[in-house]
Amino acid sequence: MLYRVTFQDNPGKEHLRQRHMAEHLAFLASHGAAILGAGPLFDGPQGRGGMWLIEAATRADVQTLVERDPFWPTDLRQSVDILEWRQVFRNGQPV
């Protein structure tokens, strides 16, 4: 199943992102089979969090992956939202 994961960052904790970025990127790369896409979200020029697209068997598997991310224990993340996503359209065609 596919899951959309969005993260909201804690205001005032932006310095933690750069401090742990190398570990975070290495983590994403090591889980490339499950993490189909990942990147920051913006509100104008200001970063507001991030989003992942995950392929996993269960929501619990996604939660486990989220909690293994080096960003997780740093207090950078204010919240996380995990939703199952069912793709019905791709490349101009119904799936």
Automatic annotation (TrEMBL):
InterPro entries: Dimeric_a/b-barrel (IPR011008), YCII (IPR005545). Residues 1-86 form the YCII-related domain. Belongs to the YciI family. This is YCII-related domain-containing protein.
